Amino acid sequence: MSQTLPAVLVIAGLDPSGGAGILADVQTISTLNCHCATVITTNTVQDSSRLYQSNPVASDILEQQLRRLESDFHFSAIKIGALGSISNARVVAQYIQQITTQNPSTAVILDPVLKATDGNRLSHESLIQTLLDEILPYCTLITPNEPELLALTGHSSSQQAVNQLASLGASVLVTGGHNRDSNNHRLENTLVIGRHQQGQSQQWSIPLINGEFRGTGCTLSSAIAGYMAHGHPLTEAIIHAQSFVSHTLENAYTLPSGQRVPLRSATIPTT
Ligand code: PLP
User: Rounded distance, CA 136 to CA 113, Å?
Assistant: First the structure.
């Protein structure tokens, strides 16, 4: 008898170098024994060291792709990464609103990608408002790093910023991985439970693996989606996903630019 796998949908941008974006998501989710369907929001021009362009796909194509998949699959989890344009963000917002109304148990994980790994802009600032008003209230979790947290809210205080995001509904996992000069060689990830969610806020202190890595945010958020697709509750999925990311970083390999990439196929997962 053939087996079935939980299906996860990724809506994200293409990084042709394979270091980050939707290819990183597919590798992670496939390693976690889920079927991964993909809809590309933006075609970037990128090599292993730099982002040169972000070219959003036409919104009507994005919409048709989402509609075709919707009538075909039941997705246990959806991961959203870079959106590319306001019109694409609106199409994704409508889709997510419909899916979460029909299937409230679908886990929706939003990685609010504003910049590429090299620091160049991947999302226009005006897109932030659509993301906050029309997408975030329908998500289970948003996974900003500290700079994204502040950029999303315009606050200079992390505490105020996190409270504002959590008041919109989704839980917030603030990731500490961007802060690679930490003195005690550990990083902190902080979960604050959102207004529409249940559970307890928590903090994790994780050994810092030295080096510059590409696509770690993509790997973490996809891993959370993968574990949730297997039925793990949010906090348990985050714990498993953090271990998964650490393992992929311990086994990271080098791209031409010298920046390392997590080996997302390295792990035998506990799903
Ligand atoms: N999505 C795309 C298309 C990217 O090119 C990048 C980084 O360059 C990201 C997402 C975010 O990657 P990271 O996980 O390093 O934040």
Answer: 13
Residue 192: φ, ψ to 5° = -115, 125
Residue nearest to atom 15 of ligand 1 (CA): 215
Per DSSP (E only), the strands in 115-178 are: 141-142, 171-174
The pLDDT of residue 2 is 79
Least confident of 98-102, 245-249, 262-266: 262-266
Over residues 71-78, mean pLDDT: 96
Q: Report the chain's mean pLDDT, rounded to a whole number.
A: 93
Please name the residue ranges forming H helices in the chain: 21-31, 59-70, 86-102, 127-130, 146-153, 158-167, 216-229, 234-250
Query: How many H-runs (helices) and E-runs (strands) does the chain carry?
Result: 8, 11
The tens digit of pLDDT for each residue in 42-74 reads 999 999 999 999 999 999 999 999 999 999 999
Q: Give the distance (Å) from ligand 1 centre to CA of residue 132.
A: 19
What are the b/e assignments for 125-135, b being 16+ CB within 10 Å?
eebbebbbebb
CA of 227 to the centre of ligand 1 (A): 21
Q: Which residues' Cβ are closer than 6 Å to ligand 1?
A: 12-13, 15, 20-21, 44, 46, 81-82, 113, 116-117, 214-218
Instruction: Please give the model's pTM, rounded to 2 decimal places.
Output: 0.95
Distance from Cα 243 to the centre of ligand 1, integer Å: 20
Could you say which DSSP state residue 168 is in? T
CA of 47 to the centre of ligand 1 (A): 12
Instruction: Report which protein residue has its CA nearest ligand 1's atom 1.
Output: 21
Q: Which atom of ligand 1 is nearest to the CA of 214?
A: 15
Burial class (CB in 10 A: 0-12, 13-18, 19+), 1: exposed
